[in-house]
Amino acid sequence: MPGGQVKFTSKGEILKIWDMKAGKTGLYVSVYDESAKNPTFDTCHVKGKGKGKTCDMKFKNGHKLDINVFSYTKLSDHNTRELVASWQDKA
User: Fold this and answer.
1) From CA 70, how far away is CA 82, in angstroms rounded?
2) Distance CA 42, CA 8 (A)
């Protein structure tokens, strides 16, 4: 994706994100467990050229996860978020 990278490892539910581009935007990733009786989610975000972050997410093994990646300029303002990638994976 332009300006960043995201890697999700199913074993251990480890999400790694990197902001690779200078500017006013960052990356925000939301992961939803739609398989759970009571659906749960976790998030991870990073902003700043060359910065990276590892997030250890806790989901039940075998559950289907929906992963959405957004670029943003102001994390607290949902109107600045733009979906840049989306996929499904398993915990």
Assistant:
1) 5
2) 13
